[in-house]
């Protein structure tokens, strides 16, 4: 539909009109970065749209801004200044939907999106709709890997399970095309773009959802010392890349011993008054810095509520960590907003069916989640709730640091990265008090030891510590979106419940908790109710949930005695016997006569997009020579070994399929 509004006006553009014939076309200028969105960002955008569409309301949903530079000539494309990641993702999504015959007319013809002076990116965008056709050898290397990765992520989402069916529902597509809007904001081409980006990135005066929640909690604490304690705890816990033992008590080992015990490994008190006495010395007229460079406020009962809100409402992490000594080498797997939602979920006393709702971990509704929890309480109970939340926040953060995996900032030998771009090895350490000699004096320093190093857990290759780290990393790369990290909620709830009862957390008990959660999801995945299945009921191809592949690799660690295996971030389902035959190199020993076996679990493995691209349409015997890819999946390793022995035919696929199903069913039976 041609647009009737002048191009230099701000407009709300429905997704269905972004690339329609007659509408302005778009170009990504050369100075813009390449397409970089991964699975988490793509899934978040699509889930946000699905959430709105499933409400059954006809309200418009604004995805965000699209800032463009006006064209010099009427027929020239608009240069995308801000919003190119979102725009490219929408283009890929529409192309993938249009590639389905039954949806092609619904999507309609589309103008191409162009990446200026980047032939690989433009070629990749233009070939998306033809992805089901035969791919020439070497074509993947000529295309942009980020765009290729995104198309595979969306393809697997469309082909897999309930979400894929919902996304292809005509009612949902109609909502996407007509009610999901981008606000297109034109700026003059003569604008100083460096100045524009400087203004866009200067947002220190804006309150984030985290700041809004903090300000509201502070309003329910009439005592200024209580407010100071909440501020100290909040600021320390928001620093997700340092252990809270260090960040809460930076600069004072005596205070650290008071709060966390003489060895720094005791969970903080659940008594708000006790914690306040340990952290805030109300009798000392000392100056405490809030972490905001413009405020250094003396803690006293004279501080008014409004002063406290101004002083403490913005979450700025203190830099006073002079005694951390290397603590910054660890990286948290979730952000502070997601951690706040985890704390709410852990302390939620509702039934399990409500606990498993993905939306309770969606940081898009962070403020609403807190508002719902506080507003439910009588006004007289809200102060005590905030006090309890303060102690819960610190205690659960302490448990998070001990029992939830992190990633070390530097890649160590034998470890894979968690994304195709990001390096780092998985780690699971608790912090302890150590010492080192400085001259003639011993100085306190943090030391890190395996969380389950003591007693019968051991630290060897087959130890509980190793099993727990393997399973957590398997779950981490399975459920990449923060809103689906229910395994983390269950793990934190398990250790928190034991801490409340003053009961130790054992390696056996913690591993059982993780395995039970994984197996519950595995059981649902194996009984997904897919329309098309193998004879034993397993879904086919892209419809097989990722937990099936990752849990198989977890089980195969012991089966194959491969205890040095490391889980890496993988999103691409690889057909070992290719969907499209390489007709020039057909070998009967590596050929499936029954094409229906192509999508059986026995012919599939989960690998990175880059590995999938390099495999192309090679025969299994050739794929077995890619030893780097074999390291990504033990299931692929088993398949490659069979191919090395001389065949990968119908019988081989059936045998491997049955062996993998037997392994899964044994695990579910507790054998």
TrEMBL record:
Residue ranges of every copy of the GmrSD restriction endonucleases C-terminal domain listed in the record: 552-662
Domain GmrSD restriction endonucleases N-terminal: 18-218
Pfam families given in the database record: GmrSD_C, GmrSD_N
Name listed for the protein in its UniProt record: Uncharacterized protein DUF1524
Record-linked InterPro entries: GmrSD_C (IPR011089), GmrSD_N (IPR004919)
Classification of source organism: Bacteria, Bacillati, Actinomycetota, Actinomycetes, Micrococcales
Organism expressing this protein natively: Glutamicibacter mysorens
Superkingdom of the organism of origin: Bacteria
């Amino acid at each position: 539909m041609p647009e009737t509004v002048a191009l230099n006006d701000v407009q709300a553009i429905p997704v269905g009109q972004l690339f329609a014939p007659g509408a302005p076309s778009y170009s990504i200028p050369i100075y813009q970065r390449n397409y970089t969105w991964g699975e988490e960002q793509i899934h978040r955008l699509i889930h946000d749209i699905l959430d709105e569409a499933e409400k059954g309301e006809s309200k418009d949903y604004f995805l965000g801004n699209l800032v463009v530079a006006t064209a010099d000539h009427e027929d020239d494309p608009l240069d995308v200044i801000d919003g190119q990641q979102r725009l490219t993702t929408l283009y890929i999504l529409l192309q993938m939907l249009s590639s389905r015959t039954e949806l092609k007319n619904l999507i309609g013809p589309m103008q191409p999106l162009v990446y200026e002076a980047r032939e690989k990116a433009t070629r990749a965008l233009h070939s998306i709709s033809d992805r089901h056709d035969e791919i020439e050898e070497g074509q993947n290397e000529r295309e942009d890997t980020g765009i290729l990765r995104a198309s595979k992520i969306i393809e697997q989402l469309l082909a897999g399970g309930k979400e894929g069916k919902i996304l292809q529902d005509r009612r949902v597509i109609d909502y996407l095309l007509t009610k999901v809007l981008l606000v297109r904001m034109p700026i003059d081409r003569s604008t100083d773009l460096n100045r524009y980006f400087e203004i866009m990135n200067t947002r220190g005066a804006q309150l984030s959802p985290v700041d809004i929640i903090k300000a509201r909690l502070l309003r329910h604490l009439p005592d200024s010392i209580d407010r100071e304690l909440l501020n100290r705890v909040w600021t320390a816990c928001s620093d997700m890349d340092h252990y809270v033992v260090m960040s809460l008590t930076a600069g004072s080992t005596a205070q650290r011993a008071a709060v966390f015990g003489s060895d720094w490994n005791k969970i903080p008190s659940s008594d708000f008054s006790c914690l306040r006495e340990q952290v805030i010395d109300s009798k000392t007229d000392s100056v405490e810095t809030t972490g905001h460079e413009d405020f250094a406020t003396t803690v006293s009962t004279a501080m008014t509520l409004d002063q406290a809100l101004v002083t403490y409402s913005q979450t700025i992490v203190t830099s006073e960590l002079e005694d951390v000594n290397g603590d910054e080498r660890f990286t948290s797997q979730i952000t502070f907003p997601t951690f706040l939602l985890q704390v709410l979920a852990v302390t939620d006393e509702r039934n399990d069916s409500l606990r498993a709702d993905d939306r309770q971990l969606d940081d898009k509704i962070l403020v609403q989640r807190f508002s719902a929890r506080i507003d439910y309480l009588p006004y007289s109970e809200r102060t005590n709730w905030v006090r309890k939340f303060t102690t819960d926040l610190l205690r659960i953060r302490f448990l998070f640091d001990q029992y939830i995996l992190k990633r070390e900032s530097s890649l160590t030998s034998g470890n894979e990265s968690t994304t195709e771009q990001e390096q780092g090895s998985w780690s699971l350490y608790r912090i302890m008090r150590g010492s080192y000699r400085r001259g003639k004096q011993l100085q306190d320093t943090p030391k890190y030891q395996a969380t389950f190093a003591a007693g019968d857990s051991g630290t060897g290759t087959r130890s509980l510590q190793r099993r727990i780290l393997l399973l957590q990393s398997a779950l981490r790369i399975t459920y990449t979106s923060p809103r689906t990290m229910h395994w983390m909620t269950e793990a934190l709830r398990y250790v928190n419940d034991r801490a409340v009862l003053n009961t130790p957390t054992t390696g056996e008990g913690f591993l059982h908790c993780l395995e039970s959660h994984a197996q519950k999801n595995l059981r649902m995945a194996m009984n997904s109710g897919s329309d098309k299945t193998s004879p034993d009921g397993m879904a086919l191809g892209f419809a097989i949930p990722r937990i099936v592949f990752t849990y198989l690799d977890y089980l195969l660690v012991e089966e194959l005695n491969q205890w040095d295996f490391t889980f890496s971030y993988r999103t691409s389902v690889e057909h070992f016997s290719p969907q499209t035959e390489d007709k020039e190199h057909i070998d009967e020993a590596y050929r499936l006569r029954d094409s229906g076996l192509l999508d059986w679990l026995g012919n599939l493995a989960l690998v990175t997009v880059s590995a999938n691209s390099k495999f192309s349409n090679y025969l299994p015997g050739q794929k077995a020579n890619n030893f780097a890819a074999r390291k990504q999946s033990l299931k692929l390793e088993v398949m490659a070994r069979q191919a090395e022995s001389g065949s990968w035919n119908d019988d081989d696929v059936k045998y491997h399929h049955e062996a993998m199903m037997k392994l899964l069913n044994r695990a579910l039976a507790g054998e």
